[in-house]
Write a structure and sequence with these properties.
The chain contains nine helices and no strands. Helix 8 packs antiparallel against helix 9. The protein is mainly alpha-helical. Helices cover 74% and strands 0% of the residues.
C-alpha cells in the first residue's frame, strides 16, 4: 500500500508556476522547486516525474487560468474597444505592481524555449493560438455588431492585439514609464 500524499498537488503546481515565472525553466533547479512547493525533492519526482513534466503541468495550469481570464474580458458586454483597452491596461497594471516584474509565464517561456520539437514549445504555440482565437471571435462579433468596419480583417486585428499583449508584457520588464505604455495601448485600440 502506498503512502498518502502529504501535500496538495494543485497548490504545489501553483507554487511551481511562481518559481518558473521568477527564474524561467532553465534557471529553476529541482531543489528550488521543491523548496518553493514545500515538498522534498523525492516527492517532486514521485508526484510529477521530472522537472520538465512539472513545467508542462505548470504551463497548462497557467494557460488555463489565463485563457479563462481572457475569455471573461473578451466576452464582456462593453464595446470591443473598451474590452481591448481593459485587457491591455490590466496587463500593464498587474506587471507594474509586481516587484519582481516576472511577467507572463507563457510569454517568458516562448522567449526562453527554442526547440520546436519540445512538448513545452508545442504547447506554448497552441496556447498562443487559443488566445488569438478568443480575441478573433470577439472581433468577429464586434464587426457583425457594426463596431468594426466590415472591410477590416478580424484575424489580422487579433494578431495585432495579441502582439500588443506580448509586447507590453515584455516592455514592462524594462520601464516604469506608464505614459509610454499607455501610448501603445491607445494606438492598438485606435487601430481597431
Amino acid at each position: 500500500m502506498g503512502r498518502a500524499k502529504k501535500f496538495d498537488p494543485d497548490v504545489a503546481v501553483e507554487r511551481a508556476v511562481d518559481a518558473f515565472r521568477v527564474r524561467g525553466y532553465g534557471e529553476t533547479s529541482p531543489q528550488e522547486l521543491a523548496d518553493r512547493m514545500g515538498i522534498g525533492k523525492g516527492s517532486l519526482y514521485h508526484a510529477f516525474g521530472s522537472k520538465h513534466e512539472l513545467f508542462l503541468k505548470s504551463l497548462e495550469h497557467y494557460a488555463d487560468q489565463s485563457l479563462a481570464e481572457l475569455k471573461a474580458v473578451m466576452e464582456g458586454p462593453e464595446p470591443i474597444r473598451d474590452r481591448v483597452r481593459r485587457l491591455l491596461e490590466s496587463f500593464v497594471d498587474a506587471d507594474l505592481r509586481d516587484p519582481d516584474r516576472c511577467g507572463c509565464l507563457i510569454v517568458n517561456s516562448v522567449a526562453e524555449l527554442h526547440d520546436r520539437e519540445d512538448p513545452a514549445s508545442r504547447f506554448l504555440g497552441r496556447s498562443l493560438e487559443n488566445s488569438e482565437s478568443v480575441i478573433r471571435t470577439a472581433l468577429v462579433a464586434a464587426q457583425a455588431a457594426g463596431e468594426i468596419d466590415a472591410d477590416r480583417d478580424p484575424a489580422a486585428l487579433a494578431g495585432l492585439v495579441q502582439a500588443a499583449m506580448v509586447g507590453l508584457r515584455v516592455l514592462v520588464k524594462t520601464t516604469d514609464d506608464r505614459a509610454r505604455l499607455a501610448l501603445i495601448v491607445d494606438a492598438t485600440v485606435q487601430t481597431l
